[in-house]
Amino acid sequence: MGKHYPFPHSESFAVSFVNCVRNTVSVTSADVRISRFQPRSNGVGWFHARAGEFTCGGSKPSQQTETVNPGKPTTQAASYNECLDLMHWVMAYRHEPIHSELMKIRDKYSMLHVDVLILVYHFAKLCSGAILEIGSFVGGATIAAALGVRDSGQEKKLIAVEPGGSVKHKRLGTRNILRDLERNLARERVANMVTLVKGQSFKPETMSAVRQALGSDQVGLLILDADAAKRRDIDCYRDKFAEGSWMVIDDIYGTDANEKITPSRADVDALVAEGLLDPLGFYGWSTWIGRWRGGAHHQAAEA
277, 249 in Cβ contact below 8 A? Predict the structure, then answer.
């Protein structure tokens, strides 16, 4: 933030808000100008052509930014810009055919918000390396990731870990999760793109199967939507995460504390505090989005 964005036909404003990395930022018309979003028939193409305008500016942060973020390294400007990028990508995809496709996937197979499925699709499309999903349920996010791989035009490994069981739910209730997961992947014609590992993520035999499926590949996208032990699952596979890999972690926020959200949020907050995760925002109802920084953290510890 604290940069000038000279868009034509823009409107000035003044606002104060808390950004995705929990810093309060005051913005006035002297600091930033953002133009009206004018969707074209190709919304993603429109944003891609202008992405630099949203993220590029002067190399030196404004005095105001330094004042409201005392002691924060100026490199956090990159995180602010990445937060804006993600928000604008979600906005742009709403004008693309994939949005209606993912809306249908969400209605049939997922409890996640459609904006989260959009980001899963987006990350799967652009990431380098493999995609690891822990907690596939009946396949909503798995299918979104497979569609992203499809549209990337590249071969990427997509590994889904699911222990199975049954769930009571008004819309997505199932007596046999694994059976319905396999049926849904086949119905959406992505079953041949997914390596399904049946078992609990932290069991030695499951970890062995995942590592065998990954081979020498690193994980470029982690989708974590299992139980409340977020750190346990991250620790099980962290040596396979590429530096800067995308992280989509569900059940991190809710209006009321409960047995899943409270420990999940504590795990993620601790990982952020340790410098292992870089937060980029909350999406949908309870999903945390960020990046893995474990490699940089390990190098700093050794220095």
Answer: no
CB 99 within 8 A of CB 44: no
Give me the helix-helix angle, 140-152 and 114-126, nearest 10°: 40
pLDDT at position 14: 42
Extended beta strands in 142-235, E state: 158-162, 194-198, 219-224
CB atoms closer than 10 angstroms to residue 198: 15
Q: Which residues pair with 282 in a beta bridge?
A: 288
Q: Please state the φ and ψ torsions of residue 258, each to the nearest 5 degrees.
A: -145, 180
3-state helix, strand, coil in the chain (%, to 5): 45, 20, 35
Looking at residue 17, what is its pLDDT?
41
**CA atoms of 27 and 152, how far apart (whole Å):** 37
Please state, in angstroms and rounded to a whole number, the distance separating the CA atoms of residues 132 and 247: 10
Q: Which residues of the chain have pLDDT under 70?
A: 1-75, 255-257, 296-303
Q: Are 93 and 86 in contact (CB under 8 A)?
A: no
User: Distance between CA 68 and CA 146 in Å, rounded?
Assistant: 42
> Quick one: tokens of 109?
């197979």
The predicted structure's pLDDT at residue 11: 45
Task: Write down the pLDDT at residue 35.
Answer: 41
The CA distance from 84 to 105, in Å, is 26
72-79 long-range Cβ contacts below 8 angstroms, 24+ apart: 72/23, 76/21, 76/23, 77/1, 77/2, 77/3, 79/20, 79/21, 79/278, 79/279, 79/280
Helix (H) or strand (E) holding 95: none
| pLDDT value of position 8 | 44
